[in-house]
Amino acid sequence: MDDNLKKIFPFIKPYKSHVFWNVIYNILYALFSTLSFIALIPMMQVLFDKSEKITEKPVYTSIWEITKFGKDYLYYNITHLQITKGPQYALLFVVALIIITFLFKNLFNYLASNHLMHLKNGVLKDLRNTMYNKIIDLPISYYSEKRKGDIMARMLGDVGEVQNSFFSILELIVKEPMTIIFTIGAMFAISVKLTLFVFIFIPISGYIISLVGKSLKSKSERIQYEGGFLISIVEESLSGLKVVKSYNAEKNFKTKFNDSVMRLLKLSNSIGRKNNLASPFSEFMGIIVIATLLWFGGNMVLVEHLPNGKPVFEAAQFLAYMGLAYNILTPAKSISKANYAVKSGLAAAQRVFEVLEVENTISDKPNAIIKESFDKNISLEQITFKYEKENVLTNFSLDVPKGKTVALVGQSGSGKSTIASLLTRFYDVQEGNIKIDGIDIKDMTMNSLRGLIGLVTQDSILFNDTIKNNILIGKEGATDDEIIEALKVANAYEFVKDLPQGINTNIGDAGNKLSGGQKQRLNIARAVLKNPPIMILDEATSALDTESEKFVQVALENMMQNRTSIVIAHRLSTIQKADKIVVMQKGKIVEQGTHEELLALEGTYSKLVFMQSFE
Fold first, then answer.
1. Is residue 134 domain-shared with residue 227, that is, in the same domain?
2. Residue from 186, 167, 266 nearest 226 by CA
3. 465 domain-assigned
4. Residue 529 · residue 471 · CB < 8 Å
5. At which of 356, 385, 404 does a domain end?
6. 163-180 residue pLDDT tens
7. Residue 613 pLDDT > 60
8. Quick one: 130 and 236 in the same domain?
């Protein structure tokens, strides 16, 4: 059994009652599908006045004789109606019998499909929830290597493909095979000789169909990866549309997109050709068998006779037999189609489980501590960290006492922002420890660690929603008054109150209806509403113009009052009032002290101040 098939079972388990009833109703569908053709025999016998005459009411003897009892009881009723009320009533009786068998056949088909629908939709819901939870829980480091578009394709397209294709397997192993089994059973009961021809058709066509479908799974995988790449191009184009247009790079991106679309076209056509071949091929093979049966069966009806002069095969039986033989073709076609669908579903499932099975390297330890307060200090002890090969931080140590503001400065690549990522456990240190009040942050729950920290980054990360809902991320359930108070502290209420709907104004995709300074002040308001004891400002003003920076600087100073703050800065203005300034170079501390002390040293810091180049 395919591993991906086994992996889907836990998702099916909550819906096992739907699987059970789907199987039961499919078996009943298959039974009545066969009976609906068998019921044609007595109807045609009545029409041709060839029906078996049974005048004595049959007696039930045992379960082993139930088929004979059922048949005799049917013909007893037909005979009784013909004698007492005439042939038209007997005909009406057998027509009603056909209607009833077809009614039950379609009723059971509906009930089976209904339970399959609940199963498919339920598993789709659970897969999507599990996938999204995994995507949210995976560490930031996972996404530094992956295309967002590919993850989106797996989340939306591949999960949907599992739902659409994968559950064809229930029809592949229950509905269609049971229809074939019941039909062949009935065909054997009518004529062993003719039925043997059917057994020549099934294995030969099955073998040829399997040969055609062998390469389908690998092509399905390739088409799904290409789909992910295509979504990535669209996502990146929309995210960087200003750059694409300003650099006249539209042609480059259009070419990249068109190339991907062409690859998708070729793969889709290749898969489509094989899918399209399944149905006509199996039908053509079936018609060959039907033609053979017509020849041999026709001879048995028209030419061959028993010693008593009756034909070997009655016309009514032969016509019903041909109906049964054709009844095999539909499930045979469905099985070949379902076989392709399952291969496509397995390829999609593989991509889904690749994400679900990624090990989350940054997670809570068993019995992790819930830390609810910050009392003394943050200490970074002999930290060494690298993203790939080269160390970004080497034996780095720093102590941040409660209530103090510590600024980290230095040129790009000196490791300043890495410290912010390590403190929030977006990444874990390879050597050394980070402790809050003497407790290693790896021993705390991530929820409680991040609950102590407010983070304001250089990028103003806002969502396509109202100002109110963007700020409520800081504290769920906060009142409008609390939100307005946070906006005032962040120096943002002055522009928010003038907006058409105030705090209920939608700010557009990524907050693009606002200026850079306004967006950053909303970010600060979100951190203010959270009201954490530790604040990390990661180059919070570096992307702003001078006027916006003044507004944001006032907001930051308001926020940092009575708080422990770690300020990662490019610009001098944000750090002059810091209790300690730490100057970094290539992952190490080269100087530390107050603004005045460092200027007096006339070293690296004073050069940076002179150049006004905190980058």
1. yes
2. 266
3. yes
4. yes
5. 356
6. 777 677 777 777 888 888
7. no
8. yes
Q: Taking a C-beta distance cutoff of 8 angstroms, is the pair 348, 162 a contact?
A: yes
In terms of residue numbers, what domain contains 143? 3-356
d(CA 572, CA 560) in angstroms, rounded, equals 17
Instruction: Please tell me whether residues 382 and 349 are part of one structural domain.
Output: no
Spatial neighbors of 513 by CB under 8 A, at least 6 apart, are 506, 507
pLDDT at site 595:
85
Say if residue 56's pLDDT is above 80.
Answer: no
Residue 568 above 90 pLDDT?
Answer: no
CB atoms near residue 388 (< 10 Å): 5
Give per-residue burial for 169-202: e unless 16+ CB within 10 Å, then b. bbbbebbbebbbebbbebbeebbeebbebbeebb
Q: How many C-beta atoms lie closer than 10 Å to residue 413's C-beta?
A: 14
- The answer for residues whose C-beta is within 8 angstroms of residue 429's C-beta and 6 or more apart is 383, 384, 385, 422
Distance of alpha carbon 96 from alpha carbon 102, whole angstroms: 10
Question: Which pTM was predicted?
Answer: 0.72
Task: Say what the pLDDT of residue 107 is.
Answer: 95
The answer to whether residues 400 and 566 touch, using CB atoms and an 8 Å cutoff, is yes
Instruction: Give Cα separations from 154 to 3, 143, 361, 397, 432 (angstroms).
Output: 18, 14, 21, 42, 37
Side-chain half-sphere CA neighbours of 546 within 13 A: 0
Does residue 195 or residue 116 have the better pLDDT? 116
369 lies in some domain: no
Q: What is the pLDDT of residue 47?
A: 64
Is 361 inside any structural domain? no
Token pair listed for 577: 């009032």
- The yes-or-no verdict on residue 287 having pLDDT over 70 is yes
When divided into structural domains, the chain yields a total of 2
Tell me: do 351 and 387 sit in the same domain: no
SS3 content of the chain, % helix, strand, coil (to 5): 65, 10, 25
Cα torsion 474, 480, 481, 487: sign = positive
Mean pLDDT, residues 539-561 taken together: 68
Query: What are the residues facing 580 on neighbouring strands?
Result: 406
Q: How far is it, in rounded angstroms, from Cα 406 to Cα 531?
A: 19
- Answer whether 42's CB lies under 8 Å from 78's CB: yes
Query: Residue 54: its pLDDT value, please?
Result: 74
- H/E stretch holding 104 reads helix 87-137
pLDDT digits (tens, 9 = 90+) for 64-117: 767 777 767 777 777 777 778 877 887 888 888 888 989 999 999 999 989 988
Whether the CB-CB separation of 26 and 178 falls below 8 Å is answered with yes
CATH code of the domain containing 424:
3.40.50.300
Residue 236: pLDDT above 90? no
> Other C-beta atoms within 10 Å of 293: how many?
22
Best CA proximity match to 45, nearest among 339, 316, 446, 387: 316
